[in-house]
Amino acid sequence: MVSATVVVGTQWGDEGKGKLTDLLAADMDLVVRYQGGHNAGHTIVVDGRRFALQLLPSGILYDHVVPVIGNGVVVDPSVLLSEIDQLSGSGVDCSRLVVSGSAHLIMPYHQELDALTERHLGRNRLGTTKRGIGPAYADKAARVGLRVQDLLDPKIFRQKLDVVLKEKNLILAKVYNRLALSSSDICDRYLGEYAPRLAPMIGDSVGVIHDALEGGRRVLLEGAQATFLDLDHGTYPFVTSSNPVAGGACVGAGIGPRDITSVLGIAKAYLTRVGSGPFPTELADDVGDLLVERGGEFGTNTGRRRRTGWFDAVMVRHAARLNSLSEIALTKLDVLDTLSQINVCVAYRCAGKLHEHMPYHQSELHDAVPVYEVLPGWQEDTTGVTKISELPSAAREYVKFLSARCGVPVTRVGVGPGREQFVEIPREG
Ligand code: GDP
Ligand code: IMO
Ligand code: MG
Question: Ligand 2 centre and the CA of 111: distance in Å?
């Protein structure tokens, strides 16, 4: 019996995927990242110690878990190695890590072009993390990318680099008036410095995952970013360049849809977004500031202030469809503890028309006016709650309401950043 579970963000990222992945990893054998790169920032808090992971799968803190970086990820080797060094320095054993040889490499020109393109776009910029993610995936699609396995074949690496660098240097010089990058400098770093250290970790991730599934071991697929940052299903162009949706886990890990037995959607009890793009329930008032402050809503790695707003059930209901969610973990309920009233968006009004589903045309979403239901707050501290019966009744009603509106059972509620700060909710019926 195969058992693969996907953890997927249902909003615009930073829902607490790292925390939930870590929590579930206690009972998992493999934890696999299937897309994205170090644009992700996944936080885990254990006994007051905070770990902010970018590329390493969030199961890595357990000795029994094999962490895997799947073929769908884009890897900046210098970031990966420094993350490994940092964790190893804190006593975490990273030696079991498997990095897919088919994952693509983020190269120095990707990072530079990401920043230059953003600058060129000016006020139309996307607000990317400037980590080179988009340019690396673009090269993958254009079939001029370098892959992790190329680090093991210096001749191929140099050949591919020379071809692609010629074009990149022309763009850097002629379009952006920048200095050319040196092929030999890049080879010194990638082949001389990174390859010898990464070589023992590079492997056949697809084989490792299938051996585990066939051996009856449990596999967790950890999504980065989120449904509405998905290249196909998100608020394009204000999206990332990969497919975080659960279907992306099949491609990015090399498994078929029938290998996936459940999909856990992670939703924040309110809503945040970093970077540009539409955000119908955004709050530009004291409540918005309160959510930033109480929720610590600053980028895990970039430090950028996150935009905040009310929970949008239209979005999460759509996420339930796109990902075939089995259940939802609702995080950061405690952040709402002090509010006397809480709004939930249940529909949009676009040009006088009521939409209960996401409007398919992006322009409508930009002008969508949220239709709110107002629920009473509980104004009690929930951070010490460990059982559903200890949650204030208004908090239980809030969770129940979201579950009904999203059409998916909420089976866990987060009441603080700590690994132990969550409440299990038994399924009804
Ligand atoms: P991810 O990218 O989805 O893994 O989420 P991030 O780690 O970027 O952001 C989530 C933030 O919320 C982190 O600082 C977590 O430590 C924190 N967090 C997660 N769950 C909870 C919760 O239930 N309550 C509170 N107060 N913080 C939480
Ligand atoms: P986790 O996994 C929140 C956003 C960026 C930008 C857009 C494109 O921690 O939830 P990119 O650098 O990917 O080309 O930027 O996507 N973004 C995220 N927002 N959480 C993330 O990851 C994100 N990764 C990218 O802010 O708007
Ligand atoms: Mg994050």
Answer: 15
Assess contact for 255 and 68: CB atoms under 8 A: no
Question: Residue 375 and residue 343: Cα distance in Å, rounded?
Answer: 6
Is residue 398 helix, strand or coil?
helix
Q: What is the pTM of this model?
A: 0.97
User: What is the atom index within ligand 2 of the atom nearest the CA of 134?
Assistant: 14
Would residue 233 show up in a list of annotated catalytic residues for this protein?
A: no
Ligand 1 pocket: which of 12, 19, 337 to mutate (most atoms <8 Å of CB)? 19
Ligand nearest to the CA of 42: 1
Residues 46/49/53/59 CA torsion (nearest 10 deg)? -20
Percentages (nearest 5) of helix, strand, coil residues in the chain? 40, 25, 40
Per-residue pLDDT tens over the stretch 287-324 = 999 999 999 999 888 889 999 999 999 999 999 999 99
Catalytic annotation on 14? yes
pLDDT band of residue 2 (cuts 50, 70, 90) is low
Q: What is the atom index within ligand 1 of the atom nearest the CA of 414?
A: 23
> Is 98 in a helix, a strand, or coil?
strand
Q: What is the pLDDT of residues 248-287, one digit of tens each?
A: 999 999 999 999 999 999 999 999 999 999 999 999 999 9
Q: Which ligand is nearest to the CA of 21?
A: 1
Gap between the Cα atoms of 380 and 329, Å rounded: 21
At 427, the pLDDT band (50, 70, 90 cuts) reads confident
**Residues 180-194 as b or e (16 or more Cβ within 10 Å = b):** ebeeeebbeebbeeb
